[in-house]
Every structure is written in structure tokens, then in C-alpha cells.
Amino acid sequence: MIQRIQSVFLAVSAVVTALFAFLTFASFEVNGNIYYMKVLGLYYQDTSEVLFEAPNMSLSAVALFGILLSVSAIFQYKNRTTQLRLVSLGIVAQLASIALVFFATSFVPEALFEGTIPQINYKWVSFLPVCSVVFMVLAMRAIKKDEALIKSLDRIR
Q1: Is the pTM of this model over 0.85?
Q2: HSE toward the beta carbon, residue 133, CA cutoff 13 A
Q3: What is the mean pLDDT of residues 29-41?
Q4: Which residues on adjacent β-strands are paired with residue 38?
Q5: Rounded CA gap, 140 and 39, in Å?
Q6: Which domains are delineated in the chain?
Q7: What is the 3 state secondary structure string of the chain?
Q8: Which of 19, 48, 72, 90 is deepest in the core (most CB within 10 A)?
């Protein structure tokens, strides 16, 4: 059934990952220009206009994959083993996105900085994949609990 607690955990995980995909997770300032890192790439604000540069395709693909895995796991409620596999794959995807956040901020194009070393300021959004992993682990525990309940009922028969 869709109204089980693991479905709620997976839905919250999908929403948290979607928030991560659209909000700024890091920023830094170089020579008066403010640069913003988002999942889609590097943005910089020059007085009045916002320009896009350096797309980050790996991070955006992993974030989208995490959202799709969470949503598809919700609708696999009849097949708990498939649901467990999707959730475990989603956990791996979220852990990869955590690693890619720090990878993306450490390998910013050096031509932008003109010889200076910027101070990277991580926002609270950069820790949203950790929250998503927590909700997926809670969903996995609830799925395993349901599986144990079904097995115990089969023994009684």
C-alpha cells in the first residue's frame, strides 16, 4: 500500500533531493564577483545579470537519478525485494552526490579566479543529500520490518 511509513520516508527523500537540485549549495567571491554553485553548474552574478558557466552534468545526473529512484521505489510497494534494491541504489546515488558536491567545488575553472584562491562557503543545502540518505535508511528499515512481518505470517499458516 502506498500509505505505509516507508512511502512517506521515500517521498520526503525525493522532496529533499529536489530541493538540493534547485538551490545554491556553495558560494564564493572573487574580485567583486559573487559565484554560486548549483547542481546544474556554476553561476556568477555581475551587478545586475546572472550568467551561467561550467555545467556540472555528473552532479545533475546523479541528483535526478536519486529523485527517480525514490519515486519509483514508492510505487514498488507490492514487490518488497525490488523496493529494497531501489532504495539501496538510491542510497549509493545520494552518497555519490555528497562526494560530487565536494568534487565540484574543488575543481572550479582556474581561469575565473585570476591567480587568487577563493574561500568556499558551503550553504546548508550541501548537507541535504545526507538528510536524504537518512530518510532512505529509515525507509529501508521499515521495508525490512514489513518483510519480516510477512515471513512470520507465512510461518503461522
Answers
A1: no
A2: 14
A3: 79
A4: 41
A5: 26
A6: 5-156 (1.20.140.150)
A7: CCCCHHHHHHHHHHHHHHHHHHCCCEEEEECCEEEEEECCEEEEEECCEEEEEEECHHHHHHHHHHHHHHHHHHCCCCCHHHHHHHHHHHHHHHHHHHHHHHHHHHCCCHHHCCCCCCCCEECHHHHHHHHHHHHHHHHHHHHHHHHHHHHHHHHHC
A8: 90
